[in-house]
Design brief:
The structure is a single chain. The protein contains twelve helices and no strands. It is mainly α. It has a single domain, classed as A middle domain of Talin 1 (Up-down Bundle). The longest helix has 33 residues. It is globular and about 55 Å long. It starts with 5 loop residues before the first helix and ends with a helix. Keywords: Membrane, Transmembrane, Transmembrane helix. InterPro entries: K/Na/Ca-exchanger (IPR004481), NaCa_Exmemb (IPR004837), NCX_ion-bd_dom_sf (IPR044880).
Amino acid sequence: MVFPSLTASIITFTISAVVIVTAGSRLARVADELADRTGLGEALFGIFLLAGVTSLPDFAATLSAALDSRPDLAMSNIMGSMAANLVFLGIADVIYRRANLEHAAASPTNLMLAALLIVLLALPLISMAGPAISLWGLHPVTPVIVAAYLFGLHLVRRTDNKPMWFPRLTRQTVPDKPKHYLSGGLAMAWLNFTALAVVTGIAGWVVMESAKSISDQTGLSETLIGGLFTALATSSPELVTTIAAIRRGALTLAVSNIFGTNCFNMLVVAAADVGYPGGSIYHDITPIQMTWGLVSILMTAILLMGMVRRELYGIGRIGFESALILLIYTVTLSIVVASG
C-alpha cells in the first residue's frame, strides 16, 4: 500500500487499530458462547480457536514485514506483541478485584501452556545466539518450533482431559461452568466468529502497511515501531478479549487465551522465517530483538510461579507477580525506546 503523506499513514494506522479493538471486544462474547455450546470448554477453546483468531493481526503484520525484507520490523512486532500480551494479564489482575487472577484462574491446563510457551520461546533465541545455518532458505529450528508446538498442544489436551492433579478449590476459585444460551443458533455464532476473525486479520495487515510508511517517513527505527506501536496495535484483540472475558467471569478463557495466543505466535515466528526472502531471518536481525523474547520468558516464568503459589490477595488486591510483570515491561520498554 502507498500512502500519500505521513498524516494519511497515521490516520490509517489509528483507524485499523480501532477496528481491531472493536472486533476483539466482540470476539470474547462469541468465544465464551461457543466454548459452552461446543462442549470444548473455555480452556481448550481459548487455546485452539480464540488464540489463533486473536493472533491473526500479528500473523498478517509480521508476515507482511518479513516478505518485504524487514526482519527487524517483523521480529520486533511479534516478540513485542508476546511481551505485551503477558502484561495484559497483569492489567486484568488489576481489574479483577475479587482475588489475584493467578489464584482464581489456576488450572493444570494453564500451567502446561505457560511451560510450553517457555520451551517455544527458547528455540528461536537459541538459534539467534548460535551459528548462522540455513537449509533451503530456512533455519533448522523453524520446523522444530512447529513440531514442538503441535506436540505441546497434544500434551495440553491430554492434561485437560485427564489431569493428574487439581488446584485446591477456594471461595475465590472460578471454575469453568457452561452457561445457558436461550437465543440464537450455533451456526450464527460460528458465522459471527468467522467474520470477526476476517476483520481482525485484514486490519492487522493494514496496520503493518501503515507502520512501514510511518517508519520510512519519520526515520524512527523499525525496532521501536515494531516493538511498541505495531505490537500494541496488533495485540489489542488479546487485551479487549481478556478484559471482556474477565468481566463475563470467564477467567479460564482469559488466561488460556493469552498463553495460547503466545504459543500460536511462535508459529508466526516460524512463518516469518519461511516468508523471509533473505535466508534465515534469525541471523539478519539486530541483537536488541532478543530482548523482548528473553523478557517474555522471564514474565512467563513469574506467572507460572504465581499460579503454583496462588497467593489469595496482594497489596491493594494486586498480585505480586502482576506488579512485577508491569515493572519489568516498563523498564524494558524504556530501554528499547532509549536504544531506538
